[in-house]
């Protein structure tokens, strides 16, 4: 993955830094996280935020091999 430098508003970076510490992420990873959520919300404006958040979590669980098959009763 390539990287590039981008100028960002100081207040945004400051907020991201605070949230990053709380969520055990680096500041750039926190900004990437926010960008990912923003992109998903714009691509799917009818979906509620909680659904998008759970979709991100489910994807991470799948990539970590932590999903269990659902069995119908």
Describe this structure in words.
The protein has helices spanning 10-22, 27-43, 49-63. With 73 residues, it is mostly helical. 62% of the residues lie in helices and 0% in strands. It has one domain (10-64). Helix 1 (10-22) crosses helix 2 (27-43). The longest helix has 17 residues, at 27-43.
Write the layout of secondary structure elements.
Blueprint lengths: L9 H13 L4 H17 L5 H15 L10
Q: TL;DR of this structure?
A:
The chain is an all-alpha fold. The chain has three helices and no strands.
Estimate the global geometry from the Cα principal axes. elongated
Kindly report how far apart the N and C termini lie.
44 Å
How would you state the average pLDDT, rounded? Answer: 92
When the domains are counted, the total is 1
Counted beta strands: 0
Cα Rg = 15 Å
The string of secondary-structure elements, in order, is HHH
Protein name: ParD-like antitoxin of type II toxin-antitoxin system
Organism: Billgrantia kenyensis
InterPro entries: ParD-like
Pfam families: ParD_like
Structural features:
73 residues, 62% helix, elongated, 0% strand, mainly alpha, 3 helices
């Amino acid at each position: 993955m390539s990287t590039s430098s981008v100028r960002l508003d100081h207040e945004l970076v400051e907020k991201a830094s605070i949230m990053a510490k709380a969520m055990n992420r680096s500041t750039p990873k926190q900004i990437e996280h926010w960008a990912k959520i923003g992109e998903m919300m714009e691509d799917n404006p009818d979906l509620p935020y909680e659904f998008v958040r759970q979709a991100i979590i489910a994807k991470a669980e799948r990539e970590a091999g932590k999903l269990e098959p659902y069995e119908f009763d």
